[in-house]
């Protein structure tokens, strides 16, 4: 499998290329994005971090519900972030271009959200990233992630093996682990209450973990 930095570059190049068709695909997932926003607690709606914001579709229902929220958004694609600057809420967000592993936010968040952005990483990489997420949350804060997961361990292993054998099979690296393994990572890091919900998209789950 390609090293993380190589995969990050591949992901960046992919999304820089398809930025103008992103909304056409992801507007079909707005119900799930609204489900994500509805899981944010009112008391944790002040300081929010969005990892892998793309063009900012999930921020449409977020600002409709919490117009005064302070939102920091991160994406690895410069072109995606140019699109988000066309949104009505462009002056209400802090934009950071970079990869999730290296950014120092210099503050903690009430809520960290992500939508269809974290399936590019292996179990070992998620262990590193989720510990960073845990440390970037206030005590009592929530990490809410909507993403696609493997249905079983056989599917997980097949997906990883497929990616190792042919890293150019997909436009970007698509690594899916099982929900059970995702929960195991979160628990091992120290997250307390973990909730799992089905979504209206096949293979997509919403997972909410509280610090």
Would you write up a description of this structure?
- This protein is α/β, with parallel strands linked by helices and 211 residues long.
- The chain has a single domain, classed as Vaccinia Virus protein VP39 (Rossmann fold, 3-Layer(aba) Sandwich).
- It is built from eight helices and seven strands.
- A seven-stranded mixed sheet has the order 3-2-1-4-5-7-6, sandwiched between helices.
- Helix 6 crosses helix 8.
- The protein is globular.
- The N and C termini lie far apart (32 Å).
- Please state the structural category: alpha/beta
Q: Largest sheet, described in full?
A: 7 strands, mixed
CATH secondary-structure class: Alpha Beta
Q: Could you give the distance between the termini? A: 32 Å
Summed over residues and divided by their number, the pLDDT gives a mean of 92
Taking all Cα atoms into account, the compactness measure Rg is: 16 Å
Biggest β-sheet: strands ordered side by side in the sheet:
3-2-1-4-5-7-6
Q: What CATH architecture do you see?
A: 3-Layer(aba) Sandwich
Q: Note the overall shape.
A: globular
Number of domains: 1
SSE layout:
Blueprint: H1 4-18, H2 22-26, H3 30-38, E1 47-51, H4 59-65, E2 70-75, H5 78-84, E3 93-97, E4 109-115, H6 123-135, E5 137-148, H7 153-165, H8 179-189, E6 194-198, E7 204-210
Helix pairs in contact: 3-4, 6-8
Concise description?
This protein is of the alpha/beta class and 211 residues long. It has a single domain (4-210), classed as Vaccinia Virus protein VP39 (Rossmann fold, 3-Layer(aba) Sandwich), CATH 3.40.50.150.
What keywords describe this structure?
alpha/beta; 7-stranded mixed β-sheet; Rossmann fold; 7 strands; 8 helices; 211 residues; globular
């Amino acid at each position: 499998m390609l090293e993380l930095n190589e995969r990050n570059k591949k992901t960046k190049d992919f999304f820089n290329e398809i930025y103008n068709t992103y909304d056409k695909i992801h507007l079909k997932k707005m119900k799930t994005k609204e489900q994500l926003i509805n899981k944010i607690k009112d008391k944790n709606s002040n300081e929010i971090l969005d990892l892998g914001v793309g063009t900012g579709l999930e921020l449409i229902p977020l600002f409709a519900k919490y117009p005064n929220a302070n939102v920091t958004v991160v994406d690895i694609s410069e072109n995606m972030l140019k699109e988000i600057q066309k949104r009505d809420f462009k002056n209400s967000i802090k934009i950071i271009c970079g990869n999730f592993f290296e950014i120092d936010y210099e503050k903690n968040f009430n809520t960290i959200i992500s939508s269809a952005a974290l399936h590019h990483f292996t179990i070992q990489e998620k262990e590193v990233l989720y510990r960073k997420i845990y440390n970037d949350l206030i005590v009592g804060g929530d990490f809410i992630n909507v993403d696609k997961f493997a249905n079983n361990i056989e599917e997980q292993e097949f997906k990883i093996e497929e990616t190792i054998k042919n890293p150019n099979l997909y436009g970007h690296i698509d690594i899916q682990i099982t929900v059970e393994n995702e929960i195991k990572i979160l628990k091992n890091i120290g997250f307390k209450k973990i909730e799992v919900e089905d979504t209206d998209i096949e293979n997509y789950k919403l997972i909410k973990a509280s610090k």
